[in-house]
């Protein structure tokens, strides 16, 4: 007589609660997706799927014979990808802009679902019969994360690039085609090319060769169809990272962006950045190679994806999908330490923890750390990996001999508590350490001598020297002791304004939440009128504060400067 064990019976049946888990998760995913798409379509015209506007405008410009890399959208954004990317995007130009927006948002939502299903197929661990539920859960987490929300809001191509790369890295394509998707993705956006050395060190050398061939072939197509634009891109535009945007913005969570915000002198930035990136990529390749040889290809591929986020000169929020996947892998890693780290990282990838920190612990270096939590998280994944990287997976014993006399039980939760305590203590230490005043490397305050010599930021001198009866933009509205205006020339911000010297004795500028106060000189620009002028890499996260003669705060911007 055969006895059926309870576990075996349970394996062959599905409880009603489990039967509904998948549909409920997918319904939640769809609800969030529809709401997010609706919000994206309701944004102001100039900011409604802004990157898609760039793609469509570039297609139209090239169609009318204009050079691709001379094009700039109404908001000043240029086309920054290789010419082959424009050819891939070309069908979008066949649609009207409203239709293109709807189709693009629908395709982005489908790409999120496809990415989740691809990840679930190769997700580490034993989840027999639960792949569909896992896929739904991954999709729901992705759709609420900041990177995917940014993809939807901006109309970005990044998510499709991640999908192509992940499907290839997880070997979900026939063997003879493996590597080609990475090559094509690299011809659209260069960062996936880091998967070529990963394939090589993990033993997938034919895949590495096919990836290079795919990249070369796609780039050759771009050269044949758009020869002038291709030569310009590969010989000059690719090296001009300033075209991509304000690299000091908190949206840029790359190592370079973090170094710029830390106030590293610009003359030292290239060397320091190159050394750090080389070390991070070397460690990531070593760890990923070990994971791949141990059969842990999902973790290896996501680790290399995080390395592309850390190493790229610019990694906007919509580039950081890899870090969300890494957080979920850590949470599903089984060990409390990994789950704790994954939970911290996932919170950072969903919420703007820097804003919370600035409110709780203003004026400290801890705010800087929280502002750069996503960059630091990507670097930590590259360096720490997902556990044993150079050896095969093996069960960890529950006990270990101590001094040869007996065994002492190890508590996995003790390690998690130790990690959490270390993070808390570290944050507490940084809380009492102020940021350097010049956390913005381009920060410059202009003096009376600069004004007299006509050295104010471009366009501001004329405003300050206007006749007294036409300086309405620099006079006071109502009872305000401070008025200002903000300009942006594509690389730096300029802030000019007027102050009431009877009410404001000291004016200070904070380059970012948590930065130390930087004293701003005030100069006389006309009879009985006093003003100031600043130049900064970015003013989006800055604050301006005025104090009276008793040191009391009279006025603060209380929020973000906007151009």
From the alpha carbons, calculate the radius of gyration and give it in angstroms: 27 Å
Structural class: alpha+beta
Distance from N terminus to C terminus (CA atoms, Å) equals: 80 Å
Largest sheet: 5 strands, antiparallel
Q: How many distinct beta strands?
A: 11
Q: Give the mean pLDDT.
A: 79
User: What percent of residues are in strands?
Assistant: 5-15%
Question: Number of helix segments?
Answer: 23
Output the keywords.
alpha+beta; five-stranded antiparallel sheet; 563 residues; single chain; globular; 23 helices; 11 strands; four-stranded antiparallel sheet
What's the helix and strand layout?
Layout: H1 6-11, H2 16-41, H3 50-63, H4 83-89, H5 97-121, H6 131-144, H7 146-154, H8 158-169, H9 180-188, H10 195-201, H11 205-225, H12 227-235, H13 255-261, H14 269-293, H15 297-311, H16 321-331, H17 336-350, H18 353-360, H19 365-371, H20 373-384, E1 399-401, E2 407-409, H21 412-431, E3 444-445, H22 448-453, H23 460-464, E4 482-488, E5 493-499, E6 506-510, E7 518-520, E8 523-526, E9 529-536, E10 543-547, E11 553-556
Antiparallel strand pairs: 1-2, 3-9, 4-5, 5-9, 6-7, 6-10, 8-9, 10-11
Helix pairs in contact: 2-5, 2-6, 2-7, 4-11, 5-6, 5-8, 8-9, 9-11, 10-11, 10-14, 11-12, 13-14, 14-15, 14-20, 15-16, 15-20, 16-17, 17-21, 18-19, 19-21
